[in-house]
Amino acid sequence: MSKIYIILLLILVIVLFVSFKNQQVKPVQGSAASYKKITAQEAMNLMQSGQKLTIVDVRTPSEYESGHIQGAINVPNESIATSVVSALPDLDATILVYCRSGARSAQAAKKLLAIGYTNVTDFGGIINWPYEVVR
Q1: Would you call 48 a catalytic residue per the annotation?
Q2: Which CATH superfamily is domain 36-134 in?
Q3: In this predicted model, what pLDDT tens digit does every residue of 20-73 receive, in sequence order?
Q4: What CDD domains does the database record attribute to this sequence (predicted)?
């Protein structure tokens, strides 16, 4: 009888191990992109360089309307899930992300990288943006 308990215990341990292994988050296959954070000054330098890039404000639409960076598009952080964002169809585009304080921009940048975007940079919050905004 004790041999049966030992065998059942081993089977249970194996099943739990396999189940746990399958639930772990796996990195995006083939994605070499990593999270990058820059300053407002570095972001401004990129914007003025003439390089083609997309500026993404990940705040709510009402926050965006209250004042945003020239040329930014509004893609709320909450709308970024697990698939390509319709407003950002090019996975290889240079994307600069910001929010109000820097918390949501970090979350959004990491989510975009996990989806498969390859060139995403977080430049923090608009509260640290010393330049003009569109109102």
Answers
A1: no
A2: Rhodanese-like domain (3.40.250.10)
A3: 554 433 344 445 689 999 999 999 999 999 999 999 999 999 999 999 999 999
A4: RHOD
Provide the edge-to-edge strand list for the sheet that holds 36-37: 36-37, 119-125, 94-99, 54-57, 73-74
Q: Which of 62, 46, 65 lies closest to 54, judged by CA? A: 46
Residue 78 neighbours by CB under 8 Å, 6+ apart: 60
- Which residues of the chain form beta strands (DSSP E)? 36-37, 54-57, 73-74, 94-99, 119-125
Q: pTM of the entire structure? A: 0.76
Among 80, 96, 99, 126, the active-site one is: 99
- What residue type is 129 in one-letter code? W
Ordered DSSP codes for 80-93: --SS--TT---TTS
Contacts of 132 by beta carbon, 8 Å cutoff, 6+ apart: 70
**Composition of the chain by helix, strand, coil, percent to 5:** 40, 15, 40
